[in-house]
Design goal:
The complex is a heterodimer of chains A (575) and B (629). Chain A contains 19 helices and twelve strands. By secondary structure, chain A is of the alpha/beta class. The radius of gyration of chain B is 37 Å and the shape is elongated. Chain B has a six-stranded mixed β-sheet with strand order 6-9-10-3-11-12. In chain B, strands 2-1-4-5 form a four-stranded antiparallel β-sheet, with no helix packed on it. Classes of the chains: A alpha/beta (575), B alpha/beta (629).
Chain lengths: 575, 629
């Protein structure tokens, strides 16, 4: 967790001031008992009313001063902790935005969201505690000891006995308790997992009649959690009573041995009262440290998770000196490309070689898991190749800046993602500075105008988060418009027409054909009928090219392709 | 990492400190009294232990409160002796010695008191650990059993995250309250009363003076609480906005990257982050100053006691030991007051939590299986619908007076646009939902007379969504049949043509399908469910031929696998392929959830209605396409 403190650099001045202020506050708190001893020994003993009042007002002044210090320190530490939270969130978010798909998928969306939000909140909370207790507790402890010794050294041995006793009790309890706290979190997670699966899989569970088995699973996890919780609480039950006992016994001991010293004339009664108060403050400060010991491990988990994100090495980054494509535009070439997902037994793509130039349509067809989406992900450089190279406009994509590369590409993903905002804003996502006319034109080509104008506010219609208030087909058309508005050199359609009804599909394809005639086009599709006049059809099978050529050529040369065609077209068409 | 999801509900800042919940907006229960009584009802079985806990708590507090007064006596004695000594010294009399027997007695009494108090306090917490955790365990168990009895309707209507949060966050809340807050409330109240009594017994006048600081406590707490509620609300709003943006950008990560919009996303994030910082800082500060201010009020009290006490002592109204005791008592005053204010909030939110849990427990549940419910040992798979009426809600009748008669081994094709209502069919056949009128029989037996478990195990299901769970591929397939060996699973996977793609995954059969099952494609999911059905070997099948995201090559595999699977079994097929439809004995044409037409292919074409339209569009569309382009 301390690793995260590097982000506090800009707050160093604040932290120094916080420490100083808290030091002053602690000193003020510690000075009060001394003043009171003075009040008793000098004022009370001599029946000096004036002296009592002077010391009294001095005490008030010091109490007020201490409080003022504490308030300013709280102000600064709130600022610092909130600032740390802000910095961490910003760093994590910026880092995640730089993640390639591989890094992103390795961690997963859900946990990345938690790490950006909840985990940072955790850290922020603990930071506040550290800035108050973590600083005041040791200061109070050390300052208290010094002040106590100033009152009377003869009683110091009581503290010498009491403090180690307290430390031992705390140490033993925490040593036994803390591991159980950790286990506790695991047990809760386990219970959550079982329950979540019960909920998401409710139909499966009932359909496969596994209710009883799931019940037993839950019961086991539940009983396990209870057992652990009881254990933790029983151990922790020792802590408070033991600490209070030590504290009270210390006071009793001080009275008894103080009495002896007073009798011997080695000590005054006021000093005894002050000493007792110091002892209480010292032991209380140790108690506060215990609370920290309980809080910190929890934050530790969050810190580890945050660090994991921040320390993830980006496997895709821009080259030091990015090469520019020069004059060329729209040339895509694969040279003996192989690719394997990290840890996979078999490569997803092996030895892929082909090239495409402007004005050509390249269709990619093949079985599930044959590597179609992976292939186009390599063009966009969502992943880097294992061997071989992908060239765009004659430059290896790894030598080009990601911005330039992606600026050339209009991409329509398989899983349509729209963002909250108006329809126009969503289309403009492809080209920020686009005019309204450009937006409307792109929508026109994408066959979206009709349904957009049916919405009460037209292009200003607000799309809900995740595009929940438009249908699948409408989402796809907006997603296509978003790509078209870029006037890109290269277009990639990853199974982008699946949710469209037939008529719209046909109209859209016709409009597209005119619109992007000059671009290099890649289409991943399931339906053979729509790609029959593609310039090049790449047939992928288990990551290899088993056929490449036009429809006619493949019908003669490629068995896999014939199979696909046979499964789709009616008999009369195949002939 | 799945555990993180449930904690997504933003909990806000500052809940960690001792002053945590003070001043934060508190959720209130709708029916506070009723819920509280019901919650207490759960403690009833452990009544004796509970009462013991409270007795110990009270004893422990009372004994520790007696301490300072007795100690004060010892100090007074010492002071008197010192005074006497000084007088003796002045008067040149023999020096009196300190009465150590008296002080010794007091010390022994104190030792006894404190030991006894500590023992009580330990016992109280020890017993409470068992009581609280056992109670929560029972409640959780009850919720789980309830979930098993709730109809599917409930799960379809409620977000999973919300149900989950009831079982986790709400129970967490209840557990902590039972474990700590209840006894804390008792000890705090006893402490306050005890301290006041002790103070009064020492000096009513000084007590009165100390009581003057009480309004200060109230003013500090309430004024800060009011302010901080406002800031916490602002902070919560900013946090919500931030969460929304993060969620959107992360789920759309691919698009953000493809369009090179990372910088813009970061800009927006930073602007929300700044708002959050401003609000969070204020909320933190306001709640952070409660403690120092309280301490100041406490110190103020102590100083007043010292000065006034000293002045009184000079006049001999009060002894020095009493002043010491008084200071100690006034110090013990602050914490309980703050704690009580805190606990009231805690209890309020706990009752709100309990109310949510009870709401869940009070949901209407499935009618239980009849005592004489049957099991069909060797089902043939003959399905009949007789005058079946069904609707999800009363305003929109979906199915009225439907009659179908399916013989063993027949195929029924269900045809219609996407979202036409295939789930409805599954819901009815498997009795996930109850029909409103008529009856459905299998092999002549009304499905309401068959044990639910037995009924459902007659069916095999190959549908696309939500049918996989977070676990390894091996486990997912093996789910089809209890006790299936790894070899049988792999055999089924081979038969379903899923073996190859499974082997390309990072961990093969041990690959864990993640929460959203986003690490495998639609077609792959379907192959897995086919493998599962093959393993389960059911009498009746419900299949979805949906091809939308499945490519043709896989489609060929799926087709082959399905054909094998359907051999000799009654099959309900959500059909997309012409051949299936043509060969089906019966076609159900569905639109928007209801059955609009029914009959064989030729009959339906002859009707020239919805089906004919659909057929012309969808299945001979391919030729039309060429004409358009």
């Amino acid at each position: 967790m301390w690793k995260l403190s590097r982000f506090l650099k800009q707050y160093s001045a604040y932290i120094v001031i916080i420490i100083l202020l808290l030091f002053m506050q602690v000193m003020a708190d510690l000075y009060l008992p001394t003043l009171m001893a003075d009040l008793v020994d000098n004022g009370l003993a001599n029946k000096d009313v004036g002296y009592i009042l002077t010391i009294g007002s001095l005490m008030l002044l010091i109490a007020a001063g201490g409080t003022l210090c504490a308030l300013i320190a709280t102000y600064l530490s709130s600022k610092t902790a909130a600032g740390l939270g802000k910095i961490l969130r910003a760093k994590i978010f910026a880092k995640v935005e730089g993640f390639s798909l591989h890094e992103f998928d390795k961690l997963g969306t859900a946990t990345l969201i938690t790490r950006t939000t909840n985990d940072v909140t955790q850290i922020q909370q603990v930071a506040v505690l550290i800035f108050s207790m973590m600083i005041t507790a040791p200061l109070t402890c050390i300052g208290g000891i010094i002040m106590a010794l100033q009152q009377d050294q003869g009683l110091a041995w009581v503290l010498v006995v009491a403090i180690p006793m307290l430390v031992v009790v705390i140490g033993v309890t925490l040593k036994r308790g803390l591991p159980l706290f950790k286990v506790m979190q695991e047990k809760i997670d386990k219970l959550n997992l079982v329950l979540r699966e019960k909920l998401t899989g409710i139909r499966v569970i009932r359909a496969f009649n596994r209710i009883e088995k799931e019940r037993v699973r839950f019961d086991t996890a539940n009983a396990d959690l209870m057992g652990n919780a009881v254990k933790v609480n029983i151990i922790m039950a020792v802590l408070m009573p033991a600490m209070m006992l030590i504290m009270n016994l210390t006071t009793v001991a001080l009275v008894w041995f103080g009495a002896i010293r007073i009798e011997g004339g080695m000590m005054q009664i006021g000093s005894l009262i002050a000493f007792i108060q110091y002892a209480t403050q010292i032991l209380f400060s140790l108690l506060m440290l215990v609370m920290l010991f309980i809080m910190i491990p929890r934050a530790q988990v969050s810190a580890v998770r945050i660090n994991e994100v921040l320390e993830t090495a980006l496997d895709i980054s821009d080259p030091e000196e990015a090469k520019s494509a020069g004059g060329k535009s729209g040339f895509v070439e694969f040279k003996e490309v192989s690719f394997r997902y990290p840890g996979a037994e078999q490569p997803t793509l092996s030895n892929i070689t082909f090239s495409a130039k402007p004005g050509e349509v390249t269709a990619i067809i093949g079985g599930t898991g044959s590597g179609k989406s992976t292939l186009i992900n390599l063009i966009i450089r969502f992943y880097d190749v294992e061997s071989g190279s992908v060239l765009v406009d004659g430059v290896d994509v790894r030598e080009m800046s990601q911005k330039e590369l992606r600026g050339k590409i209009g991409f329509v993903p398989q899983k349509t993602a729209l963002f909250s905002g108006t329809i126009a804003e969503n289309i403009k996502y492809g080209k920020e500075e686009a005019t309204r006319a450009e937006v409307e034109y792109a929508a026109q080509v994408a066959q979206a105008t009709e349904f957009v104008l049916e919405k009460e506010t037209g292009f200003d219609y607000l799309i809900a988060q995740g595009g929940a208030n438009v249908s699948g087909g409408q989402k796809q058309r907006l997603s296509i418009a978003r790509a078209l508005i870029r006037k890109a050199e290269i277009y990639i359609f990853d199974d982008s027409f699946s949710a469209l009804d037939f008529k719209t599909d046909a109209k859209l394809r016709a409009a597209l054909k005119r619109e992007i005639a000059a671009a290099t086009v890649f289409i991943i599709t399931q339906t053979v009928s729509t790609i029959r006049d593609a310039d090049r059809i790449i047939v992928l099978d288990e990551g290899r090219i088993t056929g490449i050529g036009t429809h006619k050529e493949l019908m003669i040369a490629c068995k896999v392709y014939r199979e696909i065609v046979a499964s789709q077209l009616s008999e009369e068409e195949t002939g | 990492m799945s555990e993180e999801r449930n904690s997504k509900a933003p909990k806000g800042f500052g809940s960690g400190g001792p002053m945590g919940s003070l001043g934060k907006p508190v959720e209130k229960a709708k029916n506070f009294k009723g819920t509280l009584l019901r919650l207490l009802g759960y403690l009833k079985p452990q009544r004796t232990r509970f009462i013991t806990v409270f007795v110990f708590a009270i004893l422990s507090t009372v004994f520790s409160i007696l301490g300072p007064k007795i100690m004060g006596r010892a100090v007074t004695k010492i002071a008197e002796e010192v005074g006497a000594k000084m007088t003796a010294l002045k008067l040149q009399q023999p020096l009196p010695t300190l009465d150590f027997t008296y002080i010794g007695e007091l010390v022994l009494v104190l030792l006894g008191l404190y030991l006894f108090s500590a023992a009580c306090s330990y016992l109280q917490q020890y017993i409470m650990a068992g009581v609280a955790q056992k109670t929560v365990y029972n409640m959780r168990q009850e919720v789980d059993e309830k979930l098993a009895r709730l109809p599917l309707k409930f799960f379809d209507a409620n977000a999973h995250g919300e149900i989950l949060s009831r079982v986790t966050n709400d129970f967490d809340n209840i557990s902590t309250t039972l474990q700590q807050s209840l006894t804390q409330l008792v000890t705090s109240v006893v402490t306050i009363i005890g301290v006041v009594v002790m103070m009064l017994s020492i000096s009513p006048l000084l007590t009165f003076i100390v009581a003057l600081t009480l309004p200060l406590y109230v003013v500090v707490t309430t004024s800060i609480a009011n302010r901080s509620q406002k800031y916490f609300a602002t902070q919560q709003k900013a946090l919500g906005e931030l969460n929304g943006h993060v969620e959107e950008m992360y789920t759309g990560h691919k698009v953000v990257k493809a369009f090179g919009r990372e910088d813009k996303a970061i800009d927006i994030f930073n602007s929300i982050n700044n708002d959050l910082y401003a609000a969070g800082f204020k909320a933190q500060f306001i709640s952070g100053i409660i403690m120092p201010l309280m301490r100041f009020v406490g110190n103020l009290g102590a100083v007043i006691i010292s000065v006034v006490g000293a002045l009184f002592a000079i006049r001999g109204i009060i002894t020095i030991g009493d002043i010491l005791a008084f200071i100690q008592y006034s110090g013990q005053f602050t914490m309980p007051i703050v704690q009580t204010a805190n606990i009231v909030n805690v209890i309020q939110s706990t009752v709100a939590s309990a109310e949510r849990v009870f709401e869940l427990l009070d949901e209407g549940q499935e009618t239980p299986d009849r005592a004489d419910a049957k099991v069909i040992a060797f089902p043939k798979g003959e399905v009949r619908f007789e005058n079946v009426d069904f609707s999800y809600n009363e305003e929109q009748p979906l199915i009225t007076a439907m009659n179908i008669d399916v013989k063993q081994g027949q195929t029924i094709a269900i045809v219609g646009p996407t979202g036409a209502g295939k789930t409805t069919l599954v819901n009815l056949l498997m009795r996930f939902y109850e029909i409103n009128a008529g009856n459905i029989t299998i092999d002549g037996v009304d499905i309401r007379d068959i044990k639910r478990g037995a009924l459902r195990s007659m069916f095999g299901m190959v549908l696309q969504d939500t049918w996989l769970f977070n676990g390894t591929i091996m486990d997912n397939i093996a789910y089809g049949r209890e006790g299936a060996t790894d070899e049988e699973v792999m055999c089924a996977a081979r038969a379903a043509h899923a073996h190859h793609f499974i082997k390309t995954l990072p961990e093969g059969y041990n690959t864990i399908i993640n929460e959203e099952a986003s690490n495998i494609s639609q077609g792959q999911k379907q192959l897995l469910t086919i493998a599962r059905a093959i393993l389960a070997d059911p009498a009746i099948l419900i299949l979805d031929e949906a091809t939308s995201s499945v490519d043709s090559r896989t489609e060929v595999y799926i087709q082959k696998a399905m054909k094998d699977l359907m051999q000799g079994r009654t099959s309900f097929v959500i059909a997309h392929r012409l051949s299936t439809i043509r060969e089906a004995e019966l076609i159900l044409v569905m639109n928007k959830g209801s059955v609009v037409e029914m009959g064989s292919h030729s009959e339906l074409l002859a009707q020239n209605g919805f089906y004919a339209d659909l057929y012309n569009n969808q299945f001979i569309g391919a030729q039309l396409y060429d004409e358009v382009v």
